[in-house]
Write a structure and sequence with these properties.
The chain is of the alpha+beta class and 789 residues long. The chain is built from 25 helices and 28 strands. The relative contact order is 0.05.
């Protein structure tokens, strides 16, 4: 019985196991899972030991080798072989595969298997390269136009290419491995003799068979006419024979090439020109190459230029390259060509566009080199084309993205300015509207005065509409979004829109059935449709035309959104407004969403219509796509995100209020506003309609009033944004002391701004400035009549 190894021996074995350069592993014989691997195993494969242990040996075998590996192992084990040798490809941690040579020894009684692997990737690759090199060599030799043969020291044929097969009519299968005694070709009626004898010049009689024999170094050259070639047709040939040497300089064979020079003899000059041309044109060059005559016609083209233009070679040869040049680049090409014809420029280079067979524009770098003929005149031009279309498209896309970023930043800046201006203007409009409406109440039967006041009110309301447009553009409009069905909103507007666009325009309404719900303030749909339909009406002008409104459920995928940075994949409801108007030029189309940009006459438009549409869509996380061609009309497609929620449209409506005034001074209202005009108009209106009104020009003033006022304050009306503390903070502070206090927030700012101050929560009462007397009274009455919290 073999003694158990000592601890020291085990440590030595472990050290050897760890240090050996070969990959060693121990695996469970039943599950094939790794139990132990050495450092070389992890180093070569790139996995840590923890990543390998517990995995099976087969987990890393290349999928194409898996079945063969299992079959080899099963076959060897069935034959009783317990030292298994096989090779396969194995996956490394980086995903690449290497070739391993395995020697495996299963120990059945212990249930384990020892295996040693050696990385033979380099050898496999070398063998592959050697095979490929030999095949390439054979292909090259077969490709050679010269008849080529070689023999070894025993005078056996070891090389017989396709050209010599064609020249002699003798196939390689009849010559390979046979002595060159079997091959004789008469020269001037004399036997050819033996090549090896000729190389060694052992037989002067053999040399005599070559009337033009001469030596160049260790090579022999001769020219002769043979009647036996090409089945008796005969040909002039040029022969070159050279010895083959081994590493010691000993002759081990000979090689001979035979060239048919009949055409050279007949037209040597013509052939020399042809050879110069074919040395210039490289059929397999990675760039497009062409030889062009001085009349601009293609003489030769390579595969790459055919791929660039999308034509076969025979479709290009004989045609002018200008036929395929982009029309806008033809003049520049002609100028460069004339420079070369005058030999003012031997080479030229320029970016140039070509038209692909499919109609696509191909961007290239065109490099041209003039070849001068023997007479000193321009003979032809060698042209190189490098396809840079992908690079150009990427560059164009980058420029578009940069311009879109600048546009977005510009719109955001203008939006912030518009929002601020609208807020301040709203406060002034509030005073104008409030006092005008109060004056109307006091005007009685004075018709002229009432007419003037009504005109002031209309002008103020028009200005309020303008501020709402500014706020919509700036995405700061106060909105109350609801879940709704777009078809119902549009259907309710069709009659009004028909009146808006006029009788000369046919309005077609095409709704999709089972339209998905969306979430938006219904009034914003009104704004969108009025602006778009007005825009279409003006584009059609006084002519007859058609305006089509349609809805559709759409699913935008990654492919559609690719290249459109403002579009995102998902489910959308599309609202499309199309007209048969005058359409837009590209430069106009690129600016239609710019605020204050308009193509209308002065005084006919503010330029805020489409900017408002854009602002509303951005505010509702929607998207806009515009398609327009001059003379063919325009289509605006608006994409609203699908809202997967039940509709709010059927919610119960509250009955109209019967009374909007106060209770004879029994209800006290505290108004807090830092704008004196707004404060005064609100006080005047509420006092006029029966409320007891306390006013404060800021939060600190309001706190003092609350502390000193002897009675109950029923309602706090407070501005949201104030310098000392905001309206939310003031309301929370007063509610702690007066739990029954009702609060109504008001602001010239909008939902997005005041939401940052934490007041736009559900069930919070809010009124947007500027508001009418009626709106203020109704809102105050509604808030006061709410049940106690």
């Amino acid at each position: 019985m073999r003694p158990k190894p000592t601890l020291e021996e085990l440590e030595q074995l472990a050290e050897i196991f760890s240090m050996t350069l070969d990959m060693i592993c121990v695996a469970d014989i039943h599950s094939a899972r790794f139990l132990k691997v050495n450092d070389a195993f992890t180093r070569v494969l790139g996995y840590s030991e923890a990543e390998l242990l517990g995995r099976t040996f087969l987990d890393f075998v290349h999928p194409d080798d898996l079945e063969a590996t299992i079959a080899i192992l099963r076959e060897k084990l069935q034959r009783g072989e317990y030292v298994l040798h096989f090779t396969n490809r194995y996956r490394c941690s980086e995903g690449n595969f290497i070739w391993l040579d395995w020697l495996s020894r299963p120990i059945v009684e212990k249930g384990i298997c020892y295996a040693v692997a050696h990385d033979i990737t380099d050898r496999i690759e070398m063998e592959k390269e050697l095979r490929e090199s030999r095949q390439r060599l054979q292909d090259i030799v077969d490709f050679l136009p010269d008849a080529t043969l070689a023999i070894d020291a025993s005078k056996r044929v070891i090389l017989w290419n396709k050209a010599i097969e064609r020249m002699t009519g003798v196939p390689a299968s009849e010559m390979m491995g046979k002595s060159d005694h079997a091959y004789t070709v008469p020269f001037y009626g004399k036997p050819r003799g033996q090549l090896m004898d000729l190389i060694w010049e052992e037989n002067e009689a053999i040399a005599a068979n070559y009337p033009t024999l001469k030596r160049e170094g260790d090579a022999l050259l001769a020219e002769a006419f043979s009647n036996a070639l090409y089945g008796g047709k005969g040909a002039w040939i040029r022969m070159k024979a050279s010895p083959l040497y081994d590493s010691n300089g000993q002759i081990v064979g000979a090689i001979e090439s035979i060239r048919d020079i009949t055409s050279i003899k007949e037209a040597e000059l013509s052939l020399q020109e042809s050879e110069r041309l074919f040395r210039t044109v490289f059929e397999h060059a990675p760039v497009g190459m062409a030889v062009i005559d001085m009349e601009q016609h293609f003489l030769q083209v390579n595969r790459s230029i055919c791929a660039i233009l999308g034509y076969e070679a025979h479709e290009l040869i004989g045609r002018s390259f200008n036929e395929f040049t982009h029309p806008e680049d033809r003049q520049g090409g002609v100028e460069r060509w004339e420079q070369m014809k005058r030999q003012e420029a031997i080479t030229t280079q320029a970016e140039k566009r070509y038209m692909h067979r499919s109609g696509r524009t191909i961007w290239t770098i065109s490099q041209n080199a003039l070849v001068i003929g023997r007479d000193g005149k321009p003979a032809y031009v060698v042209s190189h084309l490098i396809d840079i279309t992908a690079w150009k498209q990427a560059e164009e896309r980058r420029s578009q993205l940069e311009e879109q970023l600048r546009q977005t930043q510009r719109l955001e800046s203008i939006g912030r300015l518009a929002g601020g201006v609208a807020h301040d203007f709203n406060n002034k409009l509030q005073a104008i509207l409030g006092f005008t409406q109060m004056a109307l109440l006091e005007a009685g039967e004075q018709e002229k005065l009432r007419r003037w006041l009504m005109m002031i009110q209309q002008a103020a309301e028009g200005s309020a509409d303008l501020t709402r447009q500014l706020l919509a553009f700036a995405r700061k409009q106060n909105i109350q979004p609801k879940i709704l069905n777009l078809n119902r909103i549009v259907s309710s507007l069709i009659a009004m829109l028909k009146q808006l666009i006029g009788e000369n325009i046919l309005l077609t309404w095409v709704p999709e059935k089972d339209l998905w719900p969306i979430r938006i303030d219904p009034s914003q749909i009104d704004q969108i449709l009025i602006n778009l339909c007005t825009n279409s009406r003006d584009a059609i002008g006084g002519r007859t035309g058609t305006l089509t409104i349609e809805t559709r459920n759409v699913l935008l995928d990654e492919a559609y959104c690719h290249g459109r940075p403002e579009f995102f994949p998902g489910k959308y409801v599309m609202l499309a407004v199309s007209d048969t108007g005058c359409g837009m030029e590209p430069d106009v189309k690129s600016r239609i969403f710019d605020p204050f940009f308009t193509t209308k006459e002065q005084g006919k438009g503010t330029g805020l219509g489409l900017a408002t549409v854009y602002g509303i869509m951005r505010q509702n996380t929607g998207m806009v796509h515009v398609y327009s061609e001059p003379g063919k009309g325009s289509t605006f497609r608006l994409y609203f995100p699908h809202a997967d929620l039940p509709s709010d449209e059927d919610a119960e409506k509250k009955p109209p209020r019967e009374s909007i005034g106060g209770g004879g001074g029994d209800e006290t209202i505290l108004i807090v506003e830092d704008d004196a005009d707004v404060l005064e108009v609100a006080q005047t209106v509420l006092a006029r309609f029966g409320y007891t009104v306390l006013i404060a020009n800021g939060p600190n003033d309001a706190l003092k009033i609350v502390e000193t006022h002897p009675g109950i304050i029923h309602l706090l009306i407070t501005d949201v944004i104030m310098p000392e503390m905001n309206g939310k903070e003031l309301g929370d502070f007063l509610k702690q002391r007066h739990p029954d206090l009702r609060i109504l927030f008001m602001s010239g700012y909008t939902a997005n701004i005041i939401a940052k101050h934490g007041i736009l929560e559900k069930d919070i009462s809010f009124i947007q400035k500027p508001f009418s007397v009626q709106t203020l009274l109704e809102t105050v009455r509604t808030v006061l009549d709410k049940p106690a919290p």
